[in-house]
Amino acid sequence: MSNLLTIKSGSLTESRRKFLEKTGTSLILATFGAAFFTSCSSTDDADPASPTPSGNSSSGITISGNTISIDLSVQTELTSPGNWLLIENAKTLVANVNGSFVALTSVCTHSGCDRNWTFGNSRFTCTCHGSVFDPSGQVLQGPATTPLTPYTTQVSGTKLVVTR
Ligand code: FES
Fold first, then answer.
1. Where in the chain are the domains?
2. Is the pTM of this model over 0.70?
3. pLDDT category, 72, cuts 50, 70, 90?
4. Which residues contact 78 (CB under 8 A, 6 or more apart)?
5. Distance (Å, rounded) from C-alpha 99 to C-alpha 23?
6. Pocket test for ligand 1, best of 104, 114, 131 (most atoms within 8 A of CB)
7. Cα 16 to averaged position of ligand 1 atoms, centre (Å)
8. CA-proximal residue: ligand 1, atom 3 (nearest)
9. What is the tens place of the pLDDT at every residue in 34-43?
10. Residue 48, preceding bond cis, omega within 30 degrees?
């Protein structure tokens, strides 16, 4: 009788151990899996945390191949020094720096963020990790060490044409 109880007890213990092993493994996987995905999304800083200016054809911005045409009669704010645009579809930054237009790639050379930008005091700042670039794309502050690629700009009438 006591053997039977022991066996049952052992059987129950064995089942319970297997159950706990399976559940424990699942819990561990769930815990570390969640941490892994949280970690992945927290390092995926390319996604914007805040809205930034963007453009499309309805806003006077037309993208065709390597050319971006910006209608300044529509994008009137860009005609004022200090204003800027992030054209997300073309991964391009455009700014009015003291009356001259500059354009750069919006793909940060540090780790590729392309939508988290601010512009002020003639400086572009990638808010992913704080790299700062001058209007020609040169690095003013890391962690980036490589300049942003500059694009050519040309004004024709009320059109600003950026060639990438
Ligand atoms: Fe790190 Fe821009 S991606 S500073």
1. 10-39, 57-163
2. no
3. very high
4. 70, 72, 84, 85, 94, 96, 101, 160
5. 65
6. 131
7. 50
8. 111
9. 333 322 222 3
10. no
| β strands within the chain, DSSP E | 61-64, 67-71, 84-87, 92-97, 100-105, 117-120, 123-126, 131-133, 139-141, 150-156, 159-163
Contact (CB, 8 A) for 97 and 135: yes
Q: Are 144 and 131 in contact (CB under 8 A)?
A: yes
Which tokens belong to 13? 């213990």
Q: Which residue's structure tokens are 């930008």?
A: 117
Instruction: Verify whether ligand 1 is closer than 6 Å to residue 148 (CB atom).
Output: no
Tell me the one-letter amino acid at 121: N
Token pair for 118: 């601010």
Evaluate whether the domain defined by 57-163 bears CATH number 3.40.190.10. Answer: no
d(CA 151, CA 121) in angstroms, rounded, equals 20
Report which protein residue has its CA nearest ligand 1's atom 4.
129
